[in-house]
Design goal:
2 domains; 5 strands; 15 helices; Rossmann fold; about 5% strand; 5-stranded parallel beta sheet; alpha/beta; Zinc Finger, Delta Prime, domain 3; elongated
């Protein structure tokens, strides 16, 4: 688990490596960035490096400390995760009790709190007090998709380490070189991951074409105004919440492909090239502006679903709004023969 295995993110790798090399640490780090961008993976590498008994440029992976961190059995490493989607005050109290003792085996105690944005109000206040007066031999690593849901006073007491989404070309190269993946599959996954290396790794062995079929059924029938069929699909989608993320990724890619065709770009840029004939027919029914509006509506719904709103209402609202976009085009005469 060396630093070089953190794909991209060169700036933050340099910051973390230099802090170890120069033996200068913040008492608390806040790893920020979208889900599946490698925050937890980097936190574990950082923790392993801090506890390694023979650290040079990377953790040695041979010493007993490295092996214990790998197995999550090191007595000086605390990994905290939400239970039932929240981190309660009792958990923070237990952390405070644990770090009141000196490290058992290493020079530092490392506390990693994953999804720290899930702390309750009481737990956040307790965590703040702990960060205000931390033991000198304890380092906190807090992980969150953003800082908006955190107490500003917690954020101010941490060194912020920001993880960015990567370009599709970086992820594609990683999949081809590291996982010996063929070009087409790597291209699909790199775009489906939308810059999230963790997402790419999650789906590399389970590229779900059932999700693509469902997304195609939705996007193609919308253009034909088959609303009764679409609403039946909505009912099905509400029972397939675990597949919604991938279905939306495919919806984004279909909108992208239609935009490529509408702009008369090189068809080699079309991702779903096995459906190019159907995509060309579909593009004739939609204007460029409508394609952009539909994409925006899908994106807005995707964001809403991530906030745990009522799935069925959000999806039905998306369908109705897209239907409205389609109807306006037809009424204005910009439907099937639209040339812009």
């Amino acid at each position: 688990m060396p630093f070089k295995e953190i794909v991209g993110q060169e700036r933050l790798k340099t910051i973390l490596y230099n802090s170890i090399k120069n033996n200068k640490f913040s008492h608390a780090y806040l790893f920020l960035g979208p889900e599946n961008t490698g925050k937890r993976y980097a936190a574990m590498i950082f923790a392993k490096s801090l506890l390694c008994q023979d650290f040079k440029e990377d953790p040695c992976e041979r010493c007993i400390s490295c092996k214990k961190v790998q197995n999550l059995s090191h007595p000086d490493l605390l990994l905290i995760e939400p239970e039932k989607n929240s981190i309660k005050i009792e958990t923070i109290k237990n952390i405070k009790k644990d770090i009141s003792f000196k490290p058992f085996e290493g020079k530092k105690k490392i506390v990693i709190i994953d999804k720290v944005d899930k702390t309750t109000k009481e737990a956040s206040n307790a965590l703040l007090k702990t960060l205000e007066e931390p033991p000198k031999d304890t380092i906190f690593i807090l992980i969150s998709p953003n800082y908006y849901s955190l107490l500003p006073t917690i954020v101010s007491r941490c060194q912020k380490i920001t993880f960015h989404q990567l370009s599709s070309s970086i992820i594609k190269e990683f999949l081809i070189k590291t996982h010996s993946m063929d070009y087409q599959k790597a291209e699909w996954i790199s775009l489906l991951s939308r810059g999230r290396i963790g997402k790419a790794i999650l789906i590399k062995d389970n590229l779900n074409f059932k999700s693509r079929d469902k997304a195609w059924e939705i996007i193609s029938r919308l253009s034909l105004n088959q609303m009764d069929v679409i609403f039946n699909n909505v009912k099905e989608l509400t029972t397939e919440k675990e597949d919604l993320d991938e279905i939306f990724e495919w919806l984004f890619l279909f909108c992208r492909d239609i935009a490529v065709i509408k702009n008369r770009a090189d068809t080699t840029y079309i991702i779903n090239n096995d459906l190019i004939g159907d995509l060309e027919k579909l593009s004739q029914r939609l204007s460029i502006s409508a394609t952009h509006d539909i994409y925006a509506e899908i994106k807005n719904t995707d964001l809403l679903l991530r906030k745990n709103v009522n799935h069925r209402l959000a999806l039905e609202n998306m369908i109705m709004n897209i239907f409205s976009i389609r109807s306006q085009i037809t009424e204005n005469g910009y439907g099937y023969n639209c040339r812009y």
